[in-house]
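Minutes, project huddle
Topic: does the predicted pose make sense with adenosine-5'-triphosphate bound?
PN asked that the exact inputs be recorded in the minutes so nobody has to dig through chat later. Recorded below.
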Amino acid sequence: MSAPALLEVLNLEAAYGPIKAVRGVSLAVPEGRIATVLGPNGAGKTTLLKTLSGINDPRRGSVRFAGAEIGGHDPAEIVRRGLVQVPEGREVFPLLSVRENLLMGAYTRGDRDAVARDIEQVQAYFPILKERAAQAAGLLSGGQQQMLAIARALMAAPRMILLDEPSLGLSPKLTQEIFAIIRRINRERGTTLLLVEQNAHLALDLADLGFILENGRIVVEGPCAELRERADIQEFYLGLQ
Ligand code: ATP
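Predicted holo structure (tokens), as shared on screen:
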């Protein structure tokens, strides 16, 4: 039997007024795995993540995390339960220092000693954030801000991280670097990940299971090893053939 799902989404719908962005999505991500959601612009990927993390309210359907319903719950409560989103475009606090940004990630936690220890651990993944700890986050490069956004999410001690387009605007080299760190976080901490990505090559190499979202619906899903071999996915998502 496969591992029980940490995240289980059933018939989820989300909309902006009359615009139905997510139209009945069901998916499950087992604990400790990496999943990816691929799809064209406007398919509803960002809306899906925002609805899972409580930023958007669902119209219908259910989001279960670690066995409890969280659909429509307050984002801070969802973070406390262990589900944290890294938003598209990073959204660090530009005037706060790098260290202060990291501390903001731990705002739901009470144990200051554990938070101080975690800053050390998180900085071990991203040594540049230690070097730049006192600098304003807005002065970091785009890649460094992406690292800070991931590191800040780790500061919440999450069981699962939702990552929206981590490669957006980054060079291929920096993207490789960030993907290698994401893999390490998954292997070393057992953190479950759900990743939305435009770079289908990298995402299908990194993730265990993939979901293709088109026009608000999942049209294909399966193990990434199988998806990579499918002619239609090679043609439309991997630019092969
Ligand atoms: P991209 O890859 O371009 O970020 P996406 O797959 O993440 O696209 P969403 O951003 O979730 O897609 O958008 C899904 C649909 O919802 C699109 O039709 C989009 O125009 C619409 N939409 C997204 N955000 C809003 C908003 N704040 N108000 C109204 N409509 C929105």
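Observations noted during the meeting:
- Residues 14 and 58 are 5 Å apart (CA to CA).
- The mean pLDDT is 93.
No decisions taken; revisit at the next huddle.
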